[in-house]
Amino acid sequence: MNLRLAILSLTSRYALSADAGAEIKRLAKLDVEPPSLPRQLSLGMAALGATLGGLGIVFWIAANWESMSRTGRFALLQATLACMLLGAWRRQSARMPLALAGFLSCGALFAYFGQTYQTGADPWQLFALWAALTLPLCLGVRHDALWTAWVIVALTAALLWSQTPTGTWWEGSPYRSSLGSWVPAIALAFAFRYAPAHRPGGGIWPMRLCMIHATIGLATTAMWSLFSSGSHGLYPITLITVLALAYAFSRREMFDIFVISAIGLSANVLLVGGLARALFQDDTHGAEIPLMLLIGCAAAGLLAATVKLILHLSRRHA
Q1: For residues 249 and 179, what is the distance between their CA atoms, to the nearest angstrom?
Q2: pLDDT tens for residues 169-197?
Q3: 24-39 burial, b for 16+ CB within 10 Å, e for fewer?
Q4: Does the N terminus or the C terminus of the chain have fewer Cβ atoms within 10 A?
Q5: Count H helices, E strands: the chain?
Q6: What is the dihedral of CA 217, 153, 259, 181, to 10 degrees?
Q7: Does residue 215 form part of some domain?
Q8: How many domains does one find in the chain?
Q9: Residue 92 in domain
Q10: Given CA atoms 143, 148, 153, 154 in this order, what sign does their dihedral have?
């Protein structure tokens, strides 16, 4: 449990006076600046500055597109990429922001190359190449911010691949959509969770981002399967997957309140959607309002039960 919440709970349970409550807060040093705050704040500002700097270079080239030659644009992007990577290699104190700026510069270079020469490559191929070539950079720097950016690019490549026309029976298949939405996200999430901390160096946020992407993909796939004619039985598959993920992340060794909350919300959407589909699959003329009221009450009760369960797990694993 959070220390502040624990103190408030003790104060309320034992009916402590205002002075006693203030003394407990003073002893717990709740009003003292957290020792990790300066470091986290500086890292956050550095990541924000690197992101804005990298995007600023891209936007500056776009704003001066007509006044620069093709060679000049390529030279500027390549010089920026080389300088950022060289700086990340030589300056350990600024390695993370410089590597993040180099990561963005690499993506800008690929985008400009594809737009200039019209290679005929699908967009997902450029994102996949971007993710593949910057993977050694992420493994070398080993930082949350860089891995988070890499996860966004890799999952975007998978999602775009699943939406690419192929001219085969596989095109438009819900199973292919699943392979591009929640399947790679879950695989990456477990890879980050179980990988030794000293190897990839990724913290908790890349895994959380993967699970958010996975829960959104699962809910979208399930709703499409539930309310379309060619469902191919994807709804029970997605529901079982969500329940299995909920069980996995409710265990002590994998528990994360951010992830379990996202999974809980996805489970609520799937269960309420399944209830609505079951109630409205037959002729319900004249009974729409009572059925909608029933669905609303079921959704409220399910949400309350989910919140209570998450709070129980949070206290048990604190």
Answers
A1: 22
A2: 455 566 667 777 788 999 999 888 887 65
A3: bbeeeeeeeeeeeeee
A4: C
A5: 13, 0
A6: 20
A7: yes
A8: 2
A9: no
A10: positive
